[in-house]
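testing teh design pipeline on a random one, pls ignore if ur not involved
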């Protein structure tokens, strides 16, 4: 019950903060697009961390069309990864998602990809709704900052998690095989 109330409170506080942000900056301003995304990222992070779900849904399994990551590479995921390194985001991520060879570290990294993906999946449609509202009220030119920020700050991060997860799974399998070989 306490967890449910906390989740509801997180949603209410985040919605109230979004309202205040919209009221004082205007939803058609470029600064609103970035501030909205980061505000929602904070709310989504608190939500997913409180939820503490095991995220065992089949949605998180790699689909056959994703095998090898070719579709994501064609959509520019490697350029996006370079952008993350260039802006320093990768270094910040290594604090919460350390990269290591141990089975426990890899399992945590695998789980964190699911948490991150879920957070961005929560934010993506919310920002899309704001994008449509701004486009209808103020025109598509005013909606472009929301659209571009949604693609860069939510869609590409979802694709990045889906691109990385199979590689982490392969590393986990290799780690398990090495451990079993040592036990024999």
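output:
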């Amino acid at each position: 019950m306490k967890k449910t109330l906390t989740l509801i409170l997180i949603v209410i506080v985040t919605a109230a903060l979004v309202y205040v942000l919209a009221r004082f900056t205007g939803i058609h301003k470029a600064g609103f697009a970035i501030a909205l995304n980061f505000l929602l990222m904070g709310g989504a992070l608190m939500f997913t961390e409180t939820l503490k779900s095991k995220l065992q849904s089949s949605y998180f399994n790699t689909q056959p069309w994703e095998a090898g990551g070719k579709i994501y590479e064609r959509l520019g995921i490697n350029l996006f990864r370079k952008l993350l390194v260039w802006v320093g985001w990768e270094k910040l991520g290594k604090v919460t998602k350390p990269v290591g060879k141990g089975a426990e570290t890899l399992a945590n990294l695998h789980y964190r990809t699911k948490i991150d993906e879920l957070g961005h999946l929560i934010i993506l449609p919310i920002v899309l709704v704001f994008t449509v509202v701004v486009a209808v009220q103020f025109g598509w030119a005013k909606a472009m900052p929301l659209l571009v920020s949604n693609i860069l700050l939510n869609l590409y991060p979802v694709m990045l998690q889906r691109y990385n997860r199979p590689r982490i799974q392969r590393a986990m399998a290799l780690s398990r095989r090495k451990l079993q070989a040592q036990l024999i």
